[in-house]
Write a structure and sequence with these properties.
Layout lengths: L1 E5 L3 H13 L3 E5 L10 H6 L7 E4 L9 E4 L1 H12 L7 H30 L6 H22 L11 H14 L10 H11 L2 H14 L12 H8 L7
Parallel strand pairs: 1-2
Antiparallel strand pairs: 1-3, 3-4
Bound molecules: glutathione.
Length: about 240
């Protein structure tokens, strides 16, 4: 059984999409990052980076005891191998899947996360980061559109590469901040993934356990939560 430590976050949603596709046995354990639970010693033993997602596989295929893992890309890769789906075994397709997985974690997710932060959580609007991250995010979406032209998914069949990307588009979308004009291939792929039964189930589950998958903006966070999540500078007025 896999235990997924969760809060309302796109990086956690990636793992839930895969668990729902895989039909592996799993359970959810909340880590309330707005209260600082990511810094508790029990969670830190699994995720020394103090970030979500993290998992404990209580019955790993290899090894004697429970296996803890953090970093969404590594977790996706591990679970896909465990269930024997959503990552190719053949070395070239496998490497191409990892290529897009790393691209998402280091690019689309990291830059998109900063863009969401400066748009929705910063104490005030600051042009430079908004332009910097906005321009780079748009460029990355263009890269995605290029690879999806003529392909249903990023690498052959639906894979962990697609599952890594879609929750981040959704994070912008649900704030009405996703502009797919001029990106027809991304738009088609994004719509197709959201139609998958596992995608729907994952977001229904999140809505049920977390009362909704998102904290939309800074006004929804108490001052103490902002201080924990973003540092003391986040509460200046
Ligand atoms: N590179 C990491 C990023 C993890 C990350 O930043 N997680 C956020 C949620 S999306 C988090 O735990 N935030 C809590 C905090 O900042 O204290 C991954 O892909 O897992």
């Amino acid at each position: 059984m896999i235990e997924l430590f969760y809060y309302m976050s796109p990086n956690v949603q990636k793992i839930l999409l895969l668990l729902e596709e895989s039909k592996l046995d799993y359970k959810l354990s909340v880590v309330d990052v707005t209260k600082g639970e990511q810094y508790g010693s029990a969670f830190a033993a699994v995720s020394p980076n103090h970030r979500l997602p993290a998992i404990v596989d209580h019955a790993p295929t290899i090894g004697r005891g429970p296996l803890g893992l953090f970093e969404s890309g590594a977790i996706l890769f591990y679970i896909a191998d465990k269930c024997g789906q959503f990552v190719a075994v053949e070395p070239v397709a496998r490497a191409r899947t990892l290529q897009w997985l790393f691209w998402q974690v280091g690019g689309l997710g990291a830059i998109g996360g900063q863009l969401i932060h400066f748009r929705n959580y910063a104490p005030r609007a600051i042009d430079y980061p908004l332009t910097r991250f906005g321009t780079e995010h748009r460029r990355l979406l263009g890269v995605l559109d290029g690879v999806l032209a003529g392909h249903d998914y990023l690498v052959d069949d639906y894979s962990i590469a697609d599952m890594a990307c879609v929750p981040w588009l959704y994070a912008h979308d649900r704030r009405d901040q996703l502009d797919l004009d001029g990106l027809p291939h991304v738009a088609r792929w994004y719509a197709a993934v959201r139609e998958r039964p596992a995608f729907r189930r994952a977001y229904e589950i999140l809505a049920e356990v977390a009362g909704g998958p998102y904290v939309a903006n800074r006004s929804m966070l108490e001052v103490d939560a902002r201080r924990i999540l973003f540092g003391a500078h986040a509460v200046e007025e």
